[in-house]
Design a protein that fits this description.
Helices cover 35% and strands 17% of the residues. By secondary structure, it is of the alpha/beta class. Bound molecules: adenosine monophosphate.
Amino acid sequence: MKNITSYNFHQKKAIIRVDFNVPLNAQYEITDDTRIRATIPSIKKILADGGSVILMSHLGRPKNGPEEKFSLVHLIPDLEAKLNLKVKFAPDCIGEEAALIAKNLQPGEVLLLENLRFYKEETNGDEAFAKKLANLADVYVNDAFGTAHRAHASTTIIANYFNENKLFGFVIENELKSIDSVISASSKPFTAILGGAKVSSKITIIENLLGKVDNLIIGGGMTYTFIKAMGGQIGNSLVEEDYLETAKSVIKKAKEAGVKLMLPVDSLNGDAFDNEANRSVSDIDAIPEGWMGMDIDEKSIKAFSETILNSKTILWNGPMGVFEMENFQKGTKEIATAITKATANGAFSLVGGGDSVAAINKFNMAKQVSYVSTGGGALLEYIEGKELPGIKAIRG
Ligand code: AMP
């Protein structure tokens, strides 16, 4: 497999699948440029070698062809400022105009193609569409980890048209390195902290992690399904009745596997799902009727933090409570803090999955953990042990 550091892009046209799916405000200004920033090293490496770059991405979820609000043209000013050069734009990602601009592209130049998802062929993984994209370039670089679990035209199918000349960009390379080091967990104890709303969306990863971790900390909304399964009173807290048996089986499997399963012992409750709700604290299994658990409280924070501080490998996915509400963010913030402290003490910490990334950014702690993954679904599927089509297309 080729490698971006050693590959010489001199006189080569490289088509890079990037993840430019960034949030835009009503004026089409970028409100979070993390994903664009992440791809700059790959672009610069190719340009520095004397190659040219063709960028392709999706943005949003257009339903039926082109829509102004999903046009990648809005990203040009930001991209030009970051690269300090003029960026060309093809208003259709395939077709004669794109082919002509790509053909005339000179070393050191950058071309951005319009949103791939203006064609349903992209998500359908259409071969003819992938081939048209492939024809624009000499080498294919995949640098979009967030879509690596999709067998789309630009993430997977296109690789078939490049023989040896296909490789990962720095974003995917770093993602794989970081996630692999967590999965192999050569440094122990290995602690996984799983939170978020539902057991149902995390069950596969929980089961997969039971074979790997020393400690499994569970917090957030899914806690209450576990507590109810054990006979506790959870008041009006979030619960998935269909998953009570699943929760029981996780508890049993954890015991059998010798994994220390930690659930919260106390709960910060609200009398409504609202930041301004009245608050009360109770034991986790004695939440009164009319109240719902919305965050973990002091005793849980202390117990979880101690375990985290003693860990050498840490995976965090999902908040400990309704962290979007100021009055219920403390548990998530304290756990994030414990992770940053453990990291400062030499642990390897990986934070991934949409809401924990949003949380770590909200608390301005992203720089104090080892790695913040750009992948949501892709990260979870990779950790679950699934083969991601976009990774396989290059790795073989
Ligand atoms: P997920 O996408 O599954 O990781 O879930 C994240 C969401 O879970 C966030 O929007 C949190 O507000 C929500 N959440 C966390 N704890 C609770 C809770 N105790 N009750 C309701 N929702 C929660």
